[in-house]
């Protein structure tokens, strides 16, 4: 009988803020990915053993029940993630494969340690001005070694795979495209009095969700909002996210003074409130300059919000025909697409239906099943 695999999954992408055991929006897409992946792997796979491994501040006490003891806390130093050796104090764990689900890792592990890396995007290389200098430097120094040492690389979309292949960072046989998904709680919900008390939402609003950082392109969205107001659509804009790197509130600029009564920023919104934010929205706007996947876009579609997104990176691939698209550098085109959704009821209905159908095709169970297949292939079980 074949022995079960011992699989270690790094949790350092999870921050300390959780709501009822659910990764909150403060964690961003990577935190949600780690949480949902570990949860569903343990749900679908009763044979193999899964260990959550922490080098820094990643959560270990998130997973209860039969797996409560399958945690490993190593010394809390940043560089351990690069230099951890299985022949050290945790040799007895003897992982068959170690999974780094947050970009890079394992660059200096001994070659005998099998490893899988999930690379969500390469924006520090493509858009270095949207990331801290140390992060950009780390990518430039480590990405080739980390990907060369990985037994297999997982990406969220074919666009990212193409980026890696075109730069000679990976070979086709060592990369798999495994899409993400919206959690089951993301579904259309009725308006509630509790939500209304907490947020006092306007009757009609544009919604955008994501970490507050330059790459999310809020500046172009505000320029589009000016154009909507000029064309007789004085909508409100609700921005949901946490403060990210180098983000400056664009409303502080004098040219946006007229928009200030119409724009609100909601920081640290718990995931429990996100479905209603999406469900109430007249339209969901996602004008990001680059996304490896764009998880909020799928969450919005799952909740029945019509979507207008950037015609950039992976977003057309993820949304398919369930969204309208605009050049992220063209506020006039973005405004025109938003206006089309706002004024065309049949178009809104089509986008809502198509969005829910598209989001239903993406499930965390399927993500977990395909990830397990990668582990088994790396370990010679497939």
Percent strand:
15-25%
Neighbour order of strands in the largest sheet = 5-4-1-6-7-8-9
Oligomerization category of the chains in this entry: single chain
Low-confidence stretches: 16-27, 57-69, 73-91
Biggest pleated-sheet summary: 7 strands, parallel
Number of strands: 15
Structural class: alpha/beta
H and E order: EEEHEEHEEHHEHEHEHEEHEHEHEHHH
The overall pLDDT, averaged over residues, is 85
Could you tell me how far the N terminus lies from the C terminus, measured between alpha carbons in angstroms? 15 Å
The total of helices stands at: 13
Helix content: 25-40%
Taking all Cα atoms into account, the compactness measure Rg is 21 Å
Shape: globular
Model description:
The protein is an alpha/beta fold. The chain is 35% helix and 16% strand. The chain is built from 13 helices and 15 strands. It has helices at residues 28-44, 80-83, 123-126, 133-149, 158-166, 193-199, 218-230, 274-280, 295-302, 315-319, 331-343, 345-360, 364-378, and strands at 6-10, 18-19, 22-23, 49-54, 71-73, 97-100, 115-119, 152-155, 175-177, 205-209, 236-240, 263-266, 283-286, 307-310, 323-326. The strands form three sheets. The protein has a seven-stranded parallel β-sheet with strand order 5-4-1-6-7-8-9, sandwiched between helices. Strands 12-11-10-13-14-15 form a six-stranded parallel β-sheet, sandwiched between helices. The protein has a two-stranded antiparallel ribbon with strand order 2-3. α7 (218-230) links the parallel β10 and β11. α1 packs across α13 (364-378). The longest helix has 17 residues, at 28-44. Residues 16-27, 57-69 and 73-91 have low confidence and may be disordered.
């Amino acid at each position: 009988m074949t022995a079960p695999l011992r699989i270690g999954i790094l949790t350092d992408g999870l921050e300390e803020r959780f709501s009822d055991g659910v990764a909150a929006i403060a964690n961003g897409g990577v935190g949600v990915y780690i949480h949902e992946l570990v949860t569903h792997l343990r749900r679908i796979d009763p044979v193999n053993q899964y260990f959550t491994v922490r080098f820094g501040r990643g959560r270990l006490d998130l997973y209860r029940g039969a797996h409560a003891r399958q945690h490993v806390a190593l010394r809390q130093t940043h560089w351990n993630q690069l230099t951890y050796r299985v022949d050290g104090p945790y040799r007895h764990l003897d992982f068959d494969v170690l999974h780094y689900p947050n970009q890079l890792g394992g660059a200096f592990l001994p070659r005998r340690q099998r490893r899988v890396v999930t690379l969500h995007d390469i924006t520090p290389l493509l858009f270095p001005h949207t990331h801290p200098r140390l992060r950009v430097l780390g990518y430039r120094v480590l990405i080739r070694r980390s990907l060369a040492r990985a037994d297999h690389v997982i990406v969220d979309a074919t666009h990212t795979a193409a980026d890696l292949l075109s730069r000679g960072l990976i070979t086709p046989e060592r990369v798999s495209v495994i899409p993400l998904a919206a959690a089951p709680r993301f579904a259309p919900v009725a308006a509630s009095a509790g939500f209304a008390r907490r947020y006092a939402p306007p009757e009609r609003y544009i919604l955008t969700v994501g970490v507050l950082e330059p790459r999310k392109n809020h500046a172009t969205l505000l320029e589009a909002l000016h154009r909507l107001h000029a064309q007789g659509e004085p909508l409100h804009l609700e921005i949901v996210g946490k403060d990210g790197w180098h983000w400056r509130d664009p409303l502080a600029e004098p040219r946006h003074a007229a928009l200030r009564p119409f724009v609100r920023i909601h920081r640290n919104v718990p995931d429990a409130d996100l479905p209603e934010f999406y469900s109430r929205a007249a339209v969901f706007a996602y004008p990001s300059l680059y996304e490896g996947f764009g998880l909020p876009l799928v969450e919005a579609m799952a909740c029945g919000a019509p979507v207008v997104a950037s015609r950039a990176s992976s977003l057309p691939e993820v949304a398919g025909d369930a969204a309208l698209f605009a050049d992220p550098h063209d506020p006039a085109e973005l405004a025109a697409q938003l206006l089309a959704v706002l004024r065309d009821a049949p178009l809104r209905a089509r986008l809502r239906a198509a969005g829910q159908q598209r989001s239903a095709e993406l499930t965390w169970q399927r993500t977990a099943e395909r990830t397990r297949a990668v582990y088994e292939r790396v370990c010679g079980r497939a």
